[in-house]
Write a structure and sequence with these properties.
Blueprint lengths: L1 E6 L8 E5 L5 E4 L11 H5 L11 E3 L5 H4 L2 H6 L6 E3 L1 H27 L14 H9 L1 E3 L6 E4 L2 E7 L7 E9 L2 E7 L22 E5 L13 H15 L3 E5 L5 H14 L7 E5 L1 H11 L7 H7 L11 E4 L2 H9 L4 E5 L8 H9 L6 E4 L8 H6 L4 E4 L2 E4 L3 E4 L9 H8 L9 E5 L3 H13 L5 E2 L6 E3 L2
Parallel strand pairs: 3-4, 4-5, 5-6, 10-11, 11-20, 12-15, 12-16, 13-14, 13-15, 16-19, 20-21
Antiparallel strand pairs: 1-2, 1-22, 2-3, 7-8, 8-9, 9-10, 17-18
Helix pairs in contact: 4-5, 4-8, 6-7
Length: 466
């Protein structure tokens, strides 16, 4: 049995890990879109590093686009097997993949209208027809269900606490009469998340693929989210009379923001301005979350006793049409605009940033991890001039961040996730989904906690699991 790492290898995006059994069965863990990798992004998304037609099954950990966003491309290139995921992941992945297809087509159309002489036209990676075919191949497996994929291959999901429907993947594979247990963490959520339950414990694994996004960071030392939100909105909208632009992932982050703003209203502290969620996908994702109240933690359940809708408050409006979205840029009144994508790499938020970045009254608020090469990452790094739609813009707006809003656990959360394991019984632990310097730091931390065989795979690197 072998495993190869075709994405999220020494980076945090494009999750793809391919297990190949002796009998030729190939199991792909996630098939995510590379995002925010600068000029090489298009090349990375255009080459899998393996033959899509030879993949037997796909197991999807959760619905974030860097984990599911290339599934339609995989299907378009000949993958015909089942895609296993939880029910909520299926619900979310449907709308995210369709939205991704539409964004790609819209962005390509916009760029192609403004081509300079000699520039090549953009093409979307896949179409909405490819998404429809992909959805037809999805199959639901419930949390803690012992599911047989094929003889000698069993699958179990446990709740990873990252977003609605997110799961850690546990495979039990029998070859030559010997069982091997492989765990893929997916993305690990936070213990004490604003909305969701904490990650579940899981049985002993022989090999572990572990995410490491915040393997060198602690979130708990940062300011409370509600207080920071209040300070930024009040200073920008009420004092400077400007706008707050918040790039936020449509799934998870947007709902956390709405919940925090609703909490401010319940405490009579919410600044009296207009709040816009400018993302049709966010609207749909919020409804999906409302339809799965079983995932809420006890804190949210207590709030529901006094407030039947924890994602609604005075002044909130969901924007649907492109015309309404464009009108926000012509409205001079102070407001808060929450819009996708979270790394500011695509979608409506990119247009809002372009239209507001040169005004010092405004604030761009980053509320989660941004890949360093992404527009969000470049803003977070303090660049004074950024490229947006192939044009340079001077950064005069204030740039702020609330790192504690990340849905990824910090290194204490990651260690707690692994605390159910006997390190001496783990033959090898692979660090994925992290920047290389962070992974090196986390590898040392893991060594100190008894995990002696830690690998940091390179892009397309293959290992024997024996």
């Amino acid at each position: 049995m072998k495993i190869a790492f075709h994405g999220a290898a020494r980076t945090v995006t494009g999750s793809k890990h391919l297990i190949t059994l002796k009998n030729g069965t190939q199991i792909l863990l996630d098939c995510g879109l590379f995002q925010g990798m600068g000029h090489i992004t298009e090349k990375l998304n255009g080459y899998f590093g393996f033959d899509a037609k030879k993949v037997s099954y796909l197991i999807l950990s959760h619905a974030h686009i860097d984990h599911c966003g290339l599934l339609p491309r995989l299907v378009a290139e000949g993958f015909v097997g089942n895609i296993y995921c939880t029910s909520a992941t299926m619900d979310l992945a449907k709308i995210l993949m369709m939205d991704s297809a539409k964004i790609q087509m819209q962005d390509a159309e916009y760029v192609n209208k403004h081509l300079r002489t000699g520039e090549k036209p953009d093409k979307p990676l896949y179409t909405d027809d490819d998404v429809v075919k992909t959805i037809a191949q999805m199959k639901v497996v419930n949390y803690l269900e012992d599911y047989e994929i094929e003889p000698n291959v069993r699958l179990m999901f446990t709740d990873a606490g990252h977003i609605l429907g997110s799961a850690a993947v546990h495979l039990t594979i029998t070859e030559d009469g010997r069982k091997t247990c492989v765990t893929f963490s997916g993305d690990v959520g936070r213990y004490g998340d604003l909305l969701l339950k904490s990650p579940q414990v899981f049985d002993q694994a022989d090999f572990i693929l572990m995410e490491s996004t915040y393997g060198d960071s602690l979130h708990k030392d940062l300011d409370p989210i509600e207080d920071k939100l209040y300070d930024i909105i009040n200073n920008t909208c009420n004092v400077k009379k400007g706008k707050v632009i918040i790039p936020a992932f449509s799934v998870g982050r947007t709902q956390e923001l709405l919940y925090a703003l609703n909490s401010l209203e319940l405490k009579h502290k919410l600044p009296d301005v207009q709040y816009y969620v400018d993302s049709p996908l966010s609207t749909k994702a919020t409804e999906v979350l409302k339809n799965h109240p079983e995932v809420y933690n006890n804190g949210v359940k207590e709030t529901l006793k006094v407030d039947h809708d924890v994602f609604a408050f005075k002044g909130l409006r969901f924007i649907e049409s492109v015309e309404e979205s464009k009108a926000l840029n012509d409205d001079p009144r102070p407001c808060v605009i929450i819009s996708a994508s979270g790394m500011a790499e695509a979608g409506r938020v990119k247009h809002h940033i372009r239209n507001n970045i040169a005004n010092e009254k405004n604030t761009i608020l980053l509320v989660g991890y941004c890949e360093p090469s992404s527009l969000g990452g470049r803003l977070m790094a303090g660049q004074k001039v950024v490229d947006i739609f192939r044009r340079d813009y001077e950064v005069k707006a204030e740039v702020q961040s609330i790192k504690s809003m990340s849905a990824h656990g910090d290194y204490e959360d990651l260690l707690k996730f692994l605390s159910c394991q006997d390190p001496a019984k783990v033959k090898k632990l692979f660090l994925v989904h992290g920047e290389y310097e962070v992974q090196q730091h986390f590898a040392k931390t893991l060594n100190d906690h008894g995990f002696k065989n830690v690998e940091i795979p390179e892009y397309h690197q293959e290992f024997d699991l024996s």
